[in-house]
Amino acid sequence: MMIKGASSATFVRRVAIALLFVALACVVHIGSNGVPLFAAIASAVALGWIGSMWRHDQKLWSLSQRIEAISGQGQQHSIADRLQENTEGLEAALSAMKHRLTERHALSGLPTREPLLFRMEADRRGLVGALAVADFERLAGFDPAMAERVLLATVSRILRMVPTERLIAHVDRAQFVIWYGPDIDPAIARSELDAIAYALGSTVTADGREILPTIATRCASLPDGSAPSALLAQTLASFAIPTGSPNEVHEFSPASIAQEAQRYGLEQDLRTAIMRNEFDLAYQPLIDTTLGSVIGAEALLRWEHPVRGKVSPAIFIPVVEAAGLAEDVGLWVLNAAAREASHWQASQTGAMRVAVNISANQLHSPKFTECLKRTLHNHALEPGSLEIELTEGVASTNDASLVRMFDQIRALGIRIAIDDFGTGYSSFSTLRQLTFDKIKIDREFVTEVDRRPESQAICQSIIALGRGLNIRVLAEGVETASEYRWLRHHGCTHFQGFYFSRPLSPEDFLAFATDREGLGKLLRVEPGFQPVERVTA
């Protein structure tokens, strides 16, 4: 079969153009040391186009043989037309690709995202070093011209510090990426990125003003076979993840980004958990051995998600605090606990105390004292029925306003306890001035206290401190009979932990609180029990 002369000539002419394109690329590569990348790209594109033309011609030949075998009724004309259309489409695609590969950012003149992705795909593996002027948007909000000057100064500094063989791309308004290819040691790349970030954070002077930009950095590896576009998108998105100091180089992997995505999902679910009635409280009994009875319970927040199931407090409580939800969630807990305590008052157990954990955000709210007063009133709680627990870090803030707040809270009949005592930095003056009602020994020192001399020394000191300041001391996290016996023998009279009971539902808690016989068995100390003596150096 013969193709029409005009179509054959067109095909040959286009092949010749492609060959000239290859030759031009070679000339550029040889004649200018400054643009080897362009030469490489041009050569690759041209050769790919010729290969595509060759494959297309092979398909055309095969198709023509089949057509000739069927009939000789002028099918050659339509085949040549299809070849003409396809080659024109290839030329258009090549033109669009050349445009994308030469795209430059209008402000900085640096390559944009497309050339970066092309290089990453060609290299297959390497390391992305991302830099961002973290406070650019804030500055641009009130002084766009100054923000632009700071950005241009940043670009100038990057170009001076980064070797010319590195590809630098301006991928977003104030975000830049340095591509470290497969031939660069990742340790060297990270070290270089760290030095660049440090230098970029120095003062920028413009129009007589000095600006100290905040530079955030990210680092991510591209394994062989991974999608460059996905890695780049995830790396840039990670700038929205809080990481502490913005001036440190933070390396993100797909696994860490997936964890952040899960954390974000948790945060979104927590924002609607109250509305969807997904929260609940469990109550862990508080034991007074001098009375031989349950005197109350600590209210512990629980979350059962309809899809995730029961989520551990160790997972969701930090998200609540980081997302700024502590005040709303804390208010829900306070009201739910007070409501339950009012039920205890009406039951056969009589009035018992409910202890509620209070966050720093709640404590520092100017309306906190009024909130407590309203809670007592709304639920008709008797004085002494509510106790708030503060972590040692929160409680150790010794200032005049906090002293006044504590006095106001205690005037309402509400008791105040320090939780996890021994892990923070409370001073003796803080304990005296803020007048706490209870100290809770942290479970870290309670665990195996019967066998650990260091924990014994700490527990004995805290018990003696409480006795001297007339403050009740409670041992938290008691899980074994041996731990309970040792602490009881050394003067501790208030307890909480799995040895006595796990956190219970409201119904089960009331059943436990009224079972004095069962509690009595747990409280008995065996005759002849000898505590482990503390070994002194």
What is the SS-derived class?
Answer: alpha/beta
User: Largest sheet at a glance?
Assistant: 8 strands, mixed, barrel
* Estimated radius of gyration: 36 Å
Counting DSSP E segments of at least 2 residues, the number of strands comes to 16
Tally of alpha and pi helices: 21
Strand order, largest beta sheet:
8-9-11-12-13-14-15-16
Q: What value does the average pLDDT take?
A: 80
> What is the beta-strand fraction?
15-25%
Poorly predicted regions: 1-9, 27-47, 527-537
Q: Helix content range of the residues, please?
A: 40-55%
- Rounded to the nearest angstrom, the distance between the terminal CA atoms is 104 Å
Q: What's the shape?
A: elongated
List the defining traits of the structure above:
single chain; alpha/beta; 5-stranded mixed sheet; 21 helices; 16 strands; about 55% helix; disordered N terminus
Word description of this protein:
The protein is of the alpha/beta class and 537 residues long. Helices cover 53% and strands 17% of the residues. It has helices at residues 5-31, 36-70, 75-101, 113-123, 136-142, 144-161, 186-200, 228-237, 254-271, 313-322, 326-346, 360-363, 368-378, 392-395, 400-411, 428-433, 443-446, 453-469, 481-489, 506-514, 516-523, and strands at 126-133, 167-172, 175-180, 204-206, 209-211, 215-222, 249-251, 279-288, 293-305, 309-311, 353-357, 386-391, 415-421, 438-441, 472-476, 494-496. An eight-stranded mixed β-barrel has the order 8-9-11-12-13-14-15-16, surrounded by five helices. Strands 2-3-1-6-7 form a five-stranded mixed sheet, with helices on both faces. The protein has a two-stranded antiparallel ribbon with strand order 4-5. Strand 2 and strand 3 form a beta hairpin. Helix 1 packs antiparallel against helix 2 (36-70), helix 1 (5-31) runs parallel beside helix 3 and helix 2 (36-70) packs antiparallel against helix 3. The longest helix has 35 residues, at 36-70. The radius of gyration is 36 Å and the shape is elongated. Residues 1-9, 27-47 and 527-537 have low confidence and may be disordered.
